[in-house]
Amino acid sequence: MNKKLITVILSGLVIASLLIGFVGCGGTDPLAPQERLLVATTTSLYDTGLWGYLEPMFEEEYGVEVDVLSAGSGIALEYGRRGDVDVITVHDKPNEEKFITEGYGVERIPFAYNYFLIVGPADDPAGIKDMSPQDAFRTLYETESGKFISRGDDSGTHNKEKKIWADAGYDYEAVRTSGAWYVETGGGMGATLLKASEMGGYTLTDMGTFLSFKSDLELVPIVQQGAILLNVYSVIAISPESDPSTNIEMANNLIAFLTSPEIQELIGEYGVEEYGMQLFTPCAGVEPTS
Amino acid sequence: MTELWDGLVTALKLIISLDPEVMAIAGRSLAISATSSTIAALICLPLATVIHFNKFRGKRTLINIIQTMFSLPTVAVGLFVFVLFSGAGPLGGLGIIFTPAVMVIGQVVLISPIMLGLTISALSGVDKSIADTAVSLGASRLQMAVVTIREARFAVLAALIMGFGRAISEVGLSLMVGGNIRGYTRTITTAISLETSKGDLELALALGIILIFIALIINIVLNRIQQR
């Protein structure tokens, strides 16, 4: 008797919530069979709102349901390797090239770039303002006069940070274990910026995420000059040889879409009005050099 | 403190204005968790009855194992389900990773031990003479089980509510196997986690308050029914 009653209550709940939930979604009914394109993206393209801006346009043009997973470049590449997504947008050139060589991706196509910068508290306790990125890191390591907040999550930004340490002549393992001044958050760019602001520390960030979070932060740009700070975003379709079930056709449509002149123009204009400067510089299919 | 206040105000505004995105997220949370609770209940109630009314070697050990699994970390279950259903995994061919379906499966795995263990406890709490009386009056084994469950109904319902509560409040599993896709697998908890990482603490708090409202309403409804 009571078992029945409980079952009836729970089924009632399911039906009621299905009605609220799925009717409320309007148009994105997950039960309807619709073509899906799974995209894994680096957090910076998501947290700045660029994906949220482009997604409906692409969905309308191609009549496809785009599902965007926001994760660091490291996880995005891993999803690609496992065949869980159809296409990735990332910013980690060395690992992207490895990904292609290993046969997981078709081709690496750069579509936009901006620059990384080192941000920190306005009073600049370590006195590294306007140094080269390598010298700034060297000063932080040698003097320990300021905290450095690292992503520590194998993301594109984290790998860029490692590259700067290597370029400055340090072994990264030695750096990360050298003391309390070096802090690893293991979180996304936004979370790391908030933590750096909270702790009055320095961090390496991409320009887009920094600008979109700026109003919540007590951080200012400290180091912005240096060829090493170039940050290139590229799109890679997962190879059908690596994952036969991948939606290569729609992935190619996405690449064509992102590199089309109209969308390139929109990417270049994205956020200009809101932040007073360009977040992303379009570079359809061509590797920027500086 | 102002953040807490702002969060409350934002929550009320979102609820009163029936903000479509927030309503959809809340409805999705409810739908996924209610589905997984129902499935888990349909598995656990009969299973608990079978375990309770039968004597077998290792029964105590089995119950110990079930109770240990109350503390399964949600991320560990998430990782297990992810590896199983991801493209490269043994069940990858189903292609259900990053869908609500796989979130339901994960939640069933997560909450079944709690429902099972607490239902067994509930049945153990019933005076054994009731079952004996039923049998002496000529009840079949099934009728005896039904009588005992009816006697334990409050504690059984509490077991189900506990399971539902764990399902709707967990975040690690949903994030890992659902992927927090907007309009598809984004639930209240994964939205809270995203908004927090984006620095929108107000909206994150508001969503948390909405989650508590939902839990409150469900508990009121279930208690009403229980008191009848």
Domain count of chain A: the total is: 2
Helix/strand/pairing category of chain A: alpha/beta
CATH architecture classification of chain B: Orthogonal Bundle
Overall helicity of chain B: over 70%
What do we call the CATH topology of the largest domain in chain A? Answer: D-Maltodextrin-Binding Protein, domain 2
- What would the principal axes of the Cα set say about the shape of chain B? globular
Which class of chain B in CATH terms?
Mainly Alpha
Description of the structure:
The complex is a heterodimer of chains A (290) and B (228). Chain A has helices at 2-25, 43-47, 50-62, 73-82, 93-101, 133-143, 156-167, 172-176, 189-199, 207-213, 248-258, 261-269, 272-275; strands at 36-41, 65-70, 87-90, 105-120, 148-150, 182-184, 203-206, 220-223, 230-238, 281-282. Chain A has 290 residues and is of the alpha/beta class. Chain A has 2 domains: 36-113 and 232-282, Periplasmic binding protein-like II (D-Maltodextrin-Binding Protein, domain 2, 3-Layer(aba) Sandwich), CATH 3.40.190.10; 115-229, D-Maltodextrin-Binding Protein, domain 2. In chain A, strands 1, 2, 3, 4, 7, 8, 9 and 10 form an 8-stranded mixed β-sheet that branches. A two-stranded parallel sheet of chain A has the order 5-6. By secondary structure, chain B is mainly α. Chain B has a single domain (2-227), classed as MetI-like (MetI-like fold). In chain B, 78% of the residues lie in helices and 0% in strands. Chain B is globular and about 65 Å long. The model of chain B has no long low-confidence stretch (mean pLDDT 91).
